[in-house]
Write a structure and sequence with these properties.
Low-confidence stretches: none
Number of strands: 0
Distance between the termini: 116 Å
Order of helices and strands: H
């Protein structure tokens, strides 16, 4: 190879490297845009879910609860003897 051929090969390699760099930058920008778009969509869905939840909480808070009946279930008094110790059983 003579001097001119070496110079052309260097220029060709420089051009190839430049093109590869531009492609990498373009691909990186596309990936960044995709990630940003996906994040925005996710945030919008999260905000919608939060707003729906707030509406449900407000709706449920406005529903009047019927008064609870007191629990009058009577519990037998505790015996001092266990069932094994009772002679009548």
């Amino acid at each position: 190879m003579d001097e001119k051929e070496l110079e052309r090969e260097k220029e060709r390699q420089k051009e190839l490297i430049r093109k590869l760099g531009e492609e990498a930058v373009t691909k990186q920008q596309q990936m960044h845009a995709t990630v940003e778009k996906n994040a925005s969509e996710i945030m919008a869905r999260m905000l919608e879910t939060i707003q729906d939840t707030q509406k449900l909480v407000e709706k449920l808070s406005n529903i009047e609860q019927p008064p609870k009946k007191p629990d009058l279930h009577l519990v037998p008094p505790l015996a001092s003897k266990t069932s094994k110790e009772r002679p009548d059983e």
